[in-house]
Design a protein that fits this description.
Length: 198
């Protein structure tokens, strides 16, 4: 089920802090049910525990964002696109240790000569904003290979246990401040664009 335009408008009419804290950081994720229920909230909590156990972080350092979280995209370029079977599930992981591991792995990729230069702009822009996006790695990088193995096995479990067939995108943030800056900027841009066109 998708949200009506009026429902999207209602969410976007709220203050940026309110959207971020209540809608994006709330205890419900749309991909587990279009309306919050005890069951859908428990499912999301169980999902966060599974991801946390996989990656060795606290469950409170895992959060789904994007259309899988609230039912539609807050990326201003996606025109309030609804969550559907073709949508990605965007998972933010907050871990300074994992962030540093992959930042250093990028450095190793660069000096080894294996770095994919056509991804240079996206990678450096992400690192400047204190997150890792996994573009630019070669499969010869041991940290990246380990990550692919670990998350690849997990995606098969997710499909069975949580009935989610969507592709998963991971974004590793150094701190929660970096998460907040990133998503509040997106909310603001979406609000501006939406208000200009409606």
């Amino acid at each position: 089920m998708s949200l009506l335009l009026e429902e999207k408008k209602s969410i976007l009419s709220k203050d940026i802090d309110e959207i971020y804290n209540e809608d994006l950081l709330g205890s419900h994720a749309f991909c587990f049910g279009d309306i919050p229920t005890v069951e859908s909230i428990k499912k999301y909590d169980s999902f966060k525990i599974s991801v946390a156990n996989l990656l060795g972080v606290h469950k409170n350092d895992i959060n789904i964002f994007g259309s899988a979280k609230i039912g539609y995209s807050l990326n201003p370029e996606k025109e309030l696109k609804d969550f559907n079977e073709d949508s990605d599930i965007d998972i933010a992981i907050v871990s300074s240790n994992i962030y540093r591991t992959f930042r250093d792995a990028y450095l190793e990729e660069f000096y080894s000569g294996r770095f994919k230069y056509y991804k240079h702009k996206q990678v450096t822009s992400a690192i400047f904003r204190k997150f890792i996006i996994f573009d630019g790695f070669s499969e010869k990088n041991s940290e990246y290979r380990n990550w692919l193995e670990k998350t690849g096995e997990f995606e098969a479990i997710i499909q069975l246990e949580y009935e989610l067939n969507n592709e998963i995108n991971y974004r590793i943030f150094e701190t929660w401040d970096a998460v907040e800056y990133y998503y509040k900027k997106s909310i603001n841009e979406c609000k501006v664009k939406f208000c200009e066109n409606n």
